[in-house]
Structure formats: structure tokens, C-alpha cells
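Long-time lurker, first post.

We've been arguing in lab meeting about whether zinc ion would sit comfortably in this protein at all. Half the group thinks yes, half thinks no, and nobody has a model to point at. So I'm putting the question to the forum: if I give you the sequence and the SMILES, can you give me back a predicted structure of the complex? Inputs are below. Any interpretation is welcome too.
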Amino acid sequence: MLDLVSGIKHRSEPAGPCAYCRSKPAIAHSVVPTFLFPDHAQNVREELLCPACYDTISKWDHVGRTVLTGIPYELGTATGCLRIANPPYRELRLWLLSLLWRMAIATGPIWRNVQLGEEPDLIRELLVKETPAAANHFPIGLILPSFDGRRFDFSFEPDVVDREYKLVRAAFGGLLFFFELHIDATLQETDQFYLRPNQDWNIPIDDWQNIDFVRAWVHSLYRQTVKKQR
Ligand SMILES: [Zn+2]
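Top reply:
Settle the argument with this. Predicted structure of the protein with zinc ion, as C-alpha cells:
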């Protein structure tokens, strides 16, 4: 968790080129869309995209927003599964890949743990070609933590864990996003956890206490609150 983050990134030199088209000058925008992460103090505006490329990515943001706003806050269950019926694979994958890419290239403190190697360039190529790639190419899944049967709107600092591959974990709008940075040859067409073309997308609902990094986040928040009250 971050205690102090400036609201606006100060910069004296002129903006660099857009990270997407690599030609026109970038202007400042929130790194990830504010509907997903309304905390302006942490979702600091950065000069990543030019206006035209921002428009392109905003169209995918709109698709993401439409899908996510369909996820209710009253889950009515502590565990189970939420099914999103046949979501628009191409646009939704491009949106999710663009979120991963934006977190990886941003320089604000909240994104400091999303340090990747060549993947941002590979993802940018997919985005520029507007190619969502196969479901097993950087597989993406969501988990919905349940707080006494409710979706609780929270966000916290994304991180990367090293398994056999790098796994980027982020929390936005009370949803956990999992981005696997590999091509998973074993990913089964039947694995409904991942976004796949022409398939319903199943989002597991699990009690927050069963999810280790949500538990760790709640504990760190608790410790900070106790410290401030002393
Ligand atoms: Zn551009």
C-alpha cells in the first residue's frame, strides 16, 4: 500500500512520443480507466498515449466497462461461479491486454511491481494489429472475491509472482485480474476460467478469506489503520 503519492506527475521536459504509435506526442491520461480505478491519488495521469491512440484504447475500455457493470454487487453466495454469456472475445481480450500493457509501461508508484521484460513489446504488437491472439496466449482470468455474499469495490497495488511463468495479479473494482505471461500449450478448451472465443466466461466466486493475496492486503490495511490510530 502507498501512503503518499502525488496527484499529478510533475515533468519539466516535453512529453515523449505515444507508447502505442510511437510517433505523435503523448498527452496525460489516467493509466487505467477511472471507472475501474477511481482513486486519482494512485491512478496518476501519465503521458503514455497520443489523443488518437487514446481514442482507440478508449473504445476497448468501453467494452470492458459494459461487461463489468453487468457484474452485480449482491452475489447472494459466498462461493460459486458467475457466468458471462458469450462475451465479445476480440474486444474484451484487446481491452484486458491493453490494461496489462498500460500497467507494465506506466511509471507511477502503484505500478512499480509490474516490471516485465519483453512482454510489453509483444503485447503492444498484438494491440497495434488489433489481434487478440488465441486464448492460451497470455491467458487471462478473473476471480470475484465475496465479502459475506457481496462484491466489495476495492483496488490495490498490482504485483507479479514468478511461477513456471510470470503471473500479474491486479485488483480493480472488487475483481481480481490474473494475467499469465506465457503460451499455455496445456490450456484446455474446456477450462472456463479463461476468456475464450465463442464461449461463456466463468468467473469463480470465492470467499475473500480463501484468497491468499486478498487476505494479505486486508491484513496490511488493518495494520496501517491501527498504526494511524495510535
Ligand atoms: Zn499514438
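For your lab meeting: The longest strand covers residues 140-146. Residues 72-229 form one domain. Whichever side wins, do check it experimentally.
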